[in-house]
Amino acid sequence: MTIIDGKLLAENLRNKIANEVKQLSRPPGLAVILVGDDPSSQVYVRNKTKACVEVGFYSDQIHKSANITQEELLSEVQRLNDNKTIDGILVQLPLPPHIDANVIIEAIVPEKDVDGFSSENIGKLMQNKPFLSPCTPKGIMAMLAALNYELRGKDCVIIGASKIVGRPMVMELLNAGATVFVCHKDTKEISEKARMADVIIAAAGVANLVKADWVKEGAIVIDVGINRLEDGTLTGDVDFDEVKDKASAISPVPGGVGPMTVAMLLENTLAAYKAKL
User: 197-248: per-residue pLDDT in tens?
Assistant: First the structure.
């Protein structure tokens, strides 16, 4: 059984990016907008900013009050769209309920949409002509590639159908030649469907949902979930201690998908910079 070390894979990718940045005429620039004081969002933004500094990017962290109007936030996005030193723009989700996240995301010019959530970038992924693809699915594909795992013809089950992970993950796997099943909260007998899978990607946001009897012997299990338990510890959507003895490879939480998501954000920002050359 292999534990997929996302921290090590991400570190190797950051080192590669840092070496490339040294050869550039100016550092790539990433602007991250944080609205409000959500503790989890603050941690994510801090991690992204730290990673930027580590690879030699220019990082612009913009913190706005939770009562900012949608028009004011759109104005901030437009300012960054026009800024030639900013190659990537990321608006940390979730946004306060009075702001329509879809409107904000679509306001980011596609060539700076390093989260990969805009209609244009999702459309390119669907056409198998990816430019800036959503970071978590892209990171998962890099983890599977590191295992030298051939996805063509394999059965993959995704648990969770969010726009951030589940849906773009379908496109990534289909583009790689896999057969994909998507399960969500209204899917019947999810455990039976999961047992068919050569690869399970758990992204439901439910702590320890996937048990050993959901997993066939030798399957690869990728855990996207980050859930905080009452004692303050983090756990994924997969019951790691139960499942690890049945899986041929499994990603831990923390230290699995999370670091790879941030590394792919850096990769997307570098790609956005290079596309302008």
Answer: 999 999 999 999 999 999 999 999 999 999 988 888 889 999 999 999 999 9
Pairing mode, strands 199-202 and 227-228: unpaired
CA–CA gap between residue 64 and residue 257 (Å, rounded): 28
Other Cβ atoms within 10 Å of 267 Cβ, number: 23
Residues acting as catalytic residues: 48, 92, 115
Q: Where in the chain is the domain with CATH 3.40.50.10860?
A: 26-109
Q: Report yes or no on whether pTM surpasses 0.90.
A: yes
CA 45 to CA 28: how far, in whole Å? 17
Please tell me the distance from the alpha carbon of residue 5 to that of residue 257, in angstroms, as a whole number.
Answer: 9
Helix (H) or strand (E) holding 272: helix 257-275
Nearest to 199, CA basis, from 233, 226, 174, 162: 174
Of 102, 134, 94, nearest in space to 224 by CA: 134
Q: 54 with 14: CB under 8 angstroms?
A: yes
- List of residues 6+ apart from 257 with CB closer than 8 A: 6, 136, 139, 140, 143, 222, 223, 224, 251
Taking the C-alpha atoms of residue 67 and residue 275, their distance in angstroms, rounded to an integer, is 35
Superfamily of structural domain 26-109: Leucine Dehydrogenase, chain A, domain 1 (3.40.50.10860)
Summarize pLDDT for 31-72 with one digit per residue, the tens.
999 999 988 889 889 999 999 999 999 999 999 999 999 999
CA 45 to chain centre: 14
Q: How far is CA 52 from CA 175, 176, 268, 270, in A?
A: 29, 29, 12, 11
